[in-house]
Structures are given as C-alpha cells and as structure tokens.
Amino acid sequence: MLPGVGSVRPWVDPAVVELNRLPMRTPTTAFPTAAEARQNDRVHDGDASPWRRTLNGKWNFRLYESPDAVPANAIIKAPTGSSWLRVAVPGNWTMQNTGDLPQYTNVQMPFNGPPPTLPEKNPTGVYRRPFKVPNSWDGRQIVLHIGGAESTHVLYVNGRWVGYGTDSRLASEYDITKFVEHGDNDLTIVVSKWSAQSYVEDQDQWWMGGLHREVFVEARGATHVDNLICDASYNHVDGSGTLDVTAIVGGFTAPTEGWKIKTRIETLKGKQLSKPITKKVPHTFYQPMGFFGHKTEASFTLPGIAPWSAESPCRYRVIVELINPSGEVAEAHPQIIGFRSIVISGNELLINGKPAWIFGVNRHDHHPTRGKALTIDNIRDDLLAMRRHNITAVRCAHYPNDPRLLDLCDEIGMYVVDEANLEAHAYNTSLCNDPAWRTTWVARAARMVERDRNHASVIMWSLGNEAGYGRNHDAQAGWIRHADPTRPLHYEPASFHEGWLDGGRHASDVVCPMYPTHQDTAAYAGDRPFIMCEYSHAMGNSNGSLADYWDTILATPGLQGGFIWEWKDHGLSTTLPNGKKGFAYGGQFGEAIHDGNFVADGLMSADLVPHPAIQEVEWVYRPATMEKKGANLVISNRRSFTNLDDLAATWELNVGGSVRGSGTLEVPTVSPGQSVKLPMPCVTPTDPDAHLTVTFSQRASTAWAPAGHVVARDQVQLKAAKQAKITRLKSDAPQAAGSSVAKLFAAPIELSIFRASTDNDGYKLMPELHEMYGIGGTSLQAWQAAGVDTQPADELVAHDHRVQVLDDGSEVHHHTVNVPDALNDLGRVGITFQLKAGFDQTRWFGRGQLENYPDRNRGAMVGTWESGIDAAPYLVPQEFGLRTDCRWFEFVKSGTGEVVRLNVLQPTTMHVSATRFTAQDLFAAGHETDIKPRKTLVVHVDVAHRGVGTASCGPDILEQYRVPTGKHTFSYQLSAK
After folding, report:
1. Is the pLDDT of residue 607 over 60?
2. For every residue of 261-290, which 3-state class applies, written as one string?
3. CB of 433 within 8 A of CB of 471?
C-alpha cells in the first residue's frame, strides 16, 4: 500500500484533484539580476537560473499492476535488483520497453465503466532518483515541479509523502522545503496510468503512461514573486498599447514593510519604452475590506506601440524586480508579451480591430518514438512546417500543449485556441452535470488560464472537447470570464447540443462546429462568429472539397475559417505484428480494445513528411490571390495587417503544354484586405489551351523558409482546350502492320471501375465503426455488395473497346462504357494497363505537381510537370497518385530514354496515375509495410473518377464529384519512341 494515501486512494475519486499542490502560476523563472533575466526570457531558458536544477535524464523505474500493489519498500528502500529499469524522463514508459504498451481509442474507454470504476489491472510506475540540495539554497523555499504525468501522480521525498496531483497536461508544483535535507535526497514519483480522471481525458489519441514533460527542483526566495500576470491590450484607433502588470508576492515568509516591485517595459533589444514603475508591496494583511493580497499593480500607456498579430508578431519584454527592504534586488523575472486586442463585434472575431482569417489546424503533442515527450526542436519543427504551408492558427487539441509551444507561437506568429484537458467522449452527456466532477471541470480550465494568460498568441479559451454541455461547463465559463474578460470562450458542444443560433451562449462566444456540411455552413445566419473547430478530416487520401468550403467561407458573412483535423498522423515507431519496423496504429500493440487506424488522420506523416493534400491546404490558405476581370488582373491581399511588399510576383504563360512567356509582375503596394488592378503581362494567345499562372514568393528569408519560398500560386485559363477530331472506328477497320507500343506492355489494357478504397470510401479495417458510431463512408460497402472489388469490370458494365494501329505504330483506342443505375457511385471509370520494368519517370501536361483529385485540385496548377514514380504516401494503403485534367502523359525509362506517350483525344482531358501497385495490391494490404512495389508500372487512365471527400469523419463528396451512371465515351492514343 502506498504510504500516506494508500488507504484514501484519491485516484478513484473524481472530486479529489490535488492534495498539497501549490496553486498554478505563469511559468516565469527568477534570476539574480535583470541582466540575466533579460538573456533568459523564455520558458525553456529556466534551467539557466542558479536556483534551478533539472531532474531530466535517466531515472530508476519499476512497474506494478496497480497503485494498491506498490509496497512501501518500493518508496522507502533503495531501488536495487533486476526488477528496476532505467527509463528516460521526460518520457512515456509505454515507449521504453517496460512491459506496458500504448493503446489507442477514439470514443470508447480502454476499460469498462461506469465512471469512476477502474480496472483491477492499472499499470503504475514508480520513478526514483537522487538529487542534491546545495548549501547555497539554505533559507529558500524548495519547490518540486512535475511538468506532466499521465494520469495521476503521488510525490514522495526521502520516503515521506508530499502530495498528489491530477491533469496529465498541466504542471504540478509542491513545496518540499520541510522534506529535504542539505546534500543528497531521494525523490519518488508514483504514476498511475488509469484514474477517475481518465474518464475526462478520453481524447482521440494514444493512452500512454509516465512523466512525459520536464521535472526540476527550484529554490525560491523565502519571499519571492509567486506569480506574474501581464495584461497587454492594443487600441487600434489611436495605436496605443496598455499594459497592466500584477506581481503577486509569496513564499513562506510574508513580505514585511519595505519590500518593493519595480516594473519596466522594453523592446527585445533592451530599449526602455517608459519610466519604470516602483510600487510598495502591501504587508499589513489585517485590514478588513481593505487588504487585497501581497500584490502590486503597475499600468503603462504606450503611444505608437507595434501590435502583435500572426502576420507581424511584434513582441516586447517585461522585467519585474523584487527589491528587499535593504534596496537590493532579490530576484528578477522576465516575461515576453505582445500588445493586441480580441473583440467580438456582431458575427466577427476582430483582432486589433479587424477580422482575420483563421487558417488553422488541430495539433496534438506527438512524436513517433517519444510519444508525448517532445523536445523544443520537435515543437519548432511542427510550427515552422505549418507556416511553410500558410497555416497561421493552431487549436491545442485537446489539452494545453507543452508550454514551450506558446512561446514559439508568440515568436513565429500563430493564433492559438488553448483548450482545457477535458474530454468525456464515452460519457459525454452525463458527467457534465454530475456534481462529483464539478471540481475537476473548473480546475482544468482555471489552471490552463492561470498558466497561459500572458501569451499574445492565445486568442480564445476552449472549455474542452466532446464532453457534452451542462452545469459544470457553465461553472467553468463563469470562472474564466471573471478571471480573464479579454478573450472569448470557445466550446463546440454548447451550440451542438442547443443549436447554432442561440445555443450555449454562456459557454461559447463563437459557433465552432465539427465537420458541418457545405449546405449547413452556407446557410449560417447567426450573430456569432462561425469558426469550425474541426473540418476537412485528413484521414488517408482525403481533404476533398476544401476549396468548396472556402468558396462558402469567403461568400458568407460571419464565417472566418477553421481548423483542419489534424496536423499529423499519430503513428508510433515499433516492430509491427508482421515483423517489420514501421508506424503502428491502434491494435498493432496487441490491445483488444482499440479504434484502429482512425489515429492516422494527419496532413503530415508521423515523422513530418507532407501528405499530398498539403498542396490544397496551402492554396486555400494563401495570403495573396490573382484573378482575371475583363482585360485586367486583380491582385488581392488576404492579410489583415500587412501589405504584400514582402512578396515577389512572377508570371508564366503556358500554351498547349509549352511555356510561351514569363517574367516579373510589378505589383504596387497592396494594403491589407485590398486589391489592385494590373494590365495583362502578355497578349492573349490565339492558340487553344492557354493558362496564365502568377506565383508569389518571399523576397527575403523568414524563420520558416528561405528567400524564394513560394507562398501562393493562382492561375487563369485564357483559352480553352480544343477537342480533337475523332473518327469512330468500324469493327472491320483496316489495321497497320504492327504496334510499337504493345511490346512494352507487361499487362494488357483492361476496363477499370474499382479503386482501392480510401478511408473516406469506408473503413476497410474496421467496418464495425460505421455500425457503432454512424460515421464513415458507405461506398466501399456498396462496391463489395455489387462485386466491384472482385468481379471483372466487363461483367458489371457494358463496354465497347475498339483499337486502331496507325502507320507510325501508335495505337488509337476508343471506349464506350455504360454504367447501370445500380452502380451509381463507382470509384472510377477508365482503363488500366502495366508497362514493363524500367519505367521510372513521368512527364505530363495537366494538374500538378502533387497528387490531386477532382474535388481536391484547385491548388494543382495546369502545367507541364515531371516526376519520379510516387511512393505510397498513406499509412493504410489506398488509392493514390492521380493527376487530374491531363492532356498528355509520358512514361519514361530514364536508363534507355524510351518513352510511352498517352495523348488524350476525347474528352479534352482525363485523369492519370502511374504507380507500382494495382488497386488489388493496395486494397488487400492493411499497412504500408504489407505492400511490395512491383517492377512494372501500373497505369490508370480515367474518364471519370470519384472525389475523395471527408466521409471518414465528415461530409461525403458533393454531388458534382460523383461518377455518373450512363454512357461514358473516351479515346486516347498510345505511342512509343
């Protein structure tokens, strides 16, 4: 039994959120001087303080079956014997070969309820390590900081119980002054994987276990700055900034007369913006109705301040010095701030007085080998990659992310929705009204606000995710509104359960739905801003109709954008059941309860390789646009605060697949939200199939990309493609002597109507999810019922195929396909063939450069492209690699120079892919490591191809992207050279 709390068992009681834990504070660090504070002004600089010792590194570790099974000797006696392992902190024990493994669920709990029931087997890790307390810390308050422990933790120092804490995603701190000795000390942290709190941490992610964020010990002054609150606002009318700095003084010795706080505001280069303000710290606490705490308040009004925004993240530094009665600086604290305002006016969210687009994405803390234990470089890599693809807003899904992320968002320029670690998905309409959970509800939101309130990047507080809507949420909201009235509240279920127009107003100032249909989105007419907290679910080959969403957003008042789900796959690097190394999804660690590959739903792979849909994302989120109106080009600035002078514009004219002209486009200054007209940079050609493309690139390097990085492309068609003359062949038409193409075929031309189902077509690995939750596409189910996946296509549809071999050895193919009404939602209509080994390059005139589909190709410009053969990009193999609207396509054998060329004759364009896999290869595989590339080149040529949509979690394809029934006629020419 655990000493101190074993008989109480707080981990089974949802009402017990902490025992002996210190109040949450903003994570500033004390330094001896202002100069040292100035040099170490970010969260991750805290280790530079002489009053801090990091405890990160290797710890002794032993795993038990439950908290009740942990003997007192595991805490009191020295950790010896083979049962003790060495593990990394920060780290998840589930990623360190301890015998307990990760488990992925989305909605369902990983064990049976009802709340707060826990399973008998509750993996519990005992972490132990020594640490030293130097003599120089004598007389100071010694504080132990635990950055994050999943799910609950109990703290011991030198075998004595200290305290207990909950909330896996926020830090816990404890006063251990009376428990430590000079010199060597022993630290034990007991972490339970499951607790009553697990029922409100039921997010769509891996269940882990362990100390996944930093641990350190800190010596704070007997009297010290206990908390530092900086409220910085911006007046967009007169350009002034207002700063209110509240310094709360605490410690085990209350301040006496003579203690002072000196506050200054400066640029990041140290230039003072105003005369410092010095205030006496109140010390006479017995003043009924007149004592408000040992705190000082300093207010600054600063004219001509540079405001903070994601476009121009101007930051300043606050330095607060605590001065003792002798006039000496006892300590100095730094805090980086930005001046900005967040206001809701009507149905618009205004930042610094202007509406701003939310070009957003949802982000989890995740790393493929470390799980939840991220380095600052991992976090920075995420954010810089986002900015490279025009993403400027992030929702912390579904918990407060590592605090270093907010420092970087302040610096790089990202709008943040900060979300409380509260999701009760499996019980999302019951716990929200249960008084036993009220303390948990309020504590998780309040502690998030108390930690993160100084960050300019945080523009909204979210009460959590998928936890119903009830009295506990209103209690949360009330606390936040009183503590921080400067930011709006965000909570999706409030309006989901009570309606978009009037529902849940106390808990949410915005309507922030998940995966609304295009029709419902277009019909919104409410008086609150409409910002989708999740949309365009990026599971596998997905993100269809992203541009259609943005057509609606741009045309509908009150709509300001949203957050794509999600940033990257949550694959975990391991040895898979097939014996190969790869990224695992749910079930591949042997767990019986799981939600399969629903965890692989990112725009990026787990190791941050972009998926092809990122091409569409960066187009819909582009900062500058070009369109043709009459005889002019119109260049528009989608930014809210900065002009386009930092971007260079170039143009290119492509006619029939050849570049006919190019040059620099001289664009005058385009103010925020404004447009300019320019004359056409070229004469409209007389030849058909002409396109003008304008490209915007960075003039100078930025934190996220070098000079020359392309941030936007737009294209207009100047002349349509011309239909080729087609002569229909009779069955007895004469043929030339021999084909120059046939000898290069490894498999003949066949009709193709089946595509390897995407995750949006249906869950091939977990079809039961549709029955359980009513989500997911149904196309795969229909295809299987009709035999589309198993029967030859010619047995299901009527098909006439005629071939003419011309004198030059080329082949002209004519196809007529009649699709019956019973097959009203096919994946494709077209043909497939295979070329012999050695073809390793492609060239084409069509949309590119990356894979694109009929409902995801607006960001794919028509042009002449070349590429190697695409590798399969998705964790679960499925349809990939298509290029739409191709006029011609060449398959190249670089070793010999041989080329097979496909010219589209009828209609004017078709859709083509060239990969190393047949549709059946991809469909039969459950994981990317299950497929083996063929040496042959597998080609698909489609006259019609189904869009990809987002039906894995969201709307299916729009009607215009379905493959129609009835007659499909197409022709093409194949030649070899």
Report:
1. yes
2. EEEEEEECCCCECCCCEEEECCCCCCCCCC
3. yes
pLDDT on residue 731: 55
The β-bridge partners of 104 are: 206
The mean pLDDT of 953-964, rounded to a whole number, is 97
What the block records as the tokens of 718 is: 């100047």
Burial 879-898 (b: 16+ CB within 10 A, else e): bbbbbbbbbbbbbbbeeeeb
135 CB neighbour count, 10 Å cutoff? 8
> Contact 920/755 with Cβ under 8 angstroms?
no
Query: Residue type at 897?
Result: G
Question: What number of residues does the chain have?
Answer: 977
Q: How far apart are CA 516 and CA 522, in angstroms?
A: 10
What is residue 737's predicted lDDT score, i.e. its pLDDT?
A: 61
pLDDT in tens, 195-213: 999 999 999 999 999 999 9
* pLDDT, tens digit, 9 for 90 and up, residues 367-424: 999 999 999 999 999 999 999 999 999 999 999 999 999 999 999 999 999 999 999 9
Q: Which residues pair with 842 in a beta bridge?
A: 867, 891
- The pLDDT > 90 percentage for the chain reads 96
Neighbours of 475 (CB within 10 A): 17
Q: Is 257 exposed, middle or buried (0-12, 13-18, 19+ CB in 10 A)?
A: exposed
**Whole-prediction pTM value?**
0.97
- Residue whose pair of structure tokens reads 């990112």 in the numeric block: 602
Strands 358-363 and 393-396 turn out to be parallel
**Position 798 pLDDT exceeds 90:** yes
Contact 55, 187 (CB under 8 A): yes
Query: How far is Cα 232 from Cα 273, in angstroms, rounded to an integer?
Result: 14
Reading the block at residue 97, the tokens are 């070969």
Confidence of residue 774 (pLDDT cuts 50, 70, 90): confident
Q: For residue 953, which of 774, 781, 816 has the smallest C-alpha distance?
A: 774
251: tokens are: 């410690």
Give 536-574 pLDDT, tens digit per residue: 999 999 999 999 999 999 999 999 999 999 999 999 999
Q: What type of residue sits at position 200? A: V
**Which residues is 423 bridged to in the sheet?**
201
Say if CB 356 and CB 475 are below 8 A apart.
no
Can you list the alpha helix ranges (DSSP code H) found in 136-292?
Answer: none
CB-based contact 433:376 (threshold 8 Å): no
Strands 966-976 and 898-906 turn out to be antiparallel
Helix axes 403-412, 376-388, angle to 10 degrees: 40
CA distance 409 to 388: 14
Count CB-CB contacts under 10 A for residue 184: 11
CA 54 – CA 943 distance, rounded (Å): 62
Q: Is the dihedral of CA 726, 729, 734, 736 positive or negative?
A: positive
Q: In what order do the strands lie in the sheet with 224-235?
A: 224-235, 240-250, 295-302
Cis omega (within 30 of 0) for bond into 116: yes
d(CA 473, CA 461): 13
Per-residue pLDDT at 729 exceeds 80 = no
Residue 119 and residue 112 in contact, taking contact as beta carbons nearer than 8 Å: yes
| Tally: H helices and E strands in the chain | 13, 53
Query: Is residue 781 scored above 70 in pLDDT?
Result: yes
Enclosing H/E stretch for 37: helix 34-39
With residues binned 3-state (H G I as helix, E B as strand, rest as coil), the percentages for the chain, rounded to 5, are: 15, 35, 45
Residue 597 above 60 pLDDT?
yes
Tell me the sheet residues that pair with 395. 362, 417
Q: Residue 288: pLDDT above 90?
A: no
Average pLDDT of the chain, as a whole number:
96
Query: CA–CA separation, 548 vs 532, rounded Å?
Result: 14
pLDDT at position 654 is 98
Q: How far is CA 253 from CA 139, 163, 294, 325, 794, in A?
A: 10, 21, 12, 14, 87
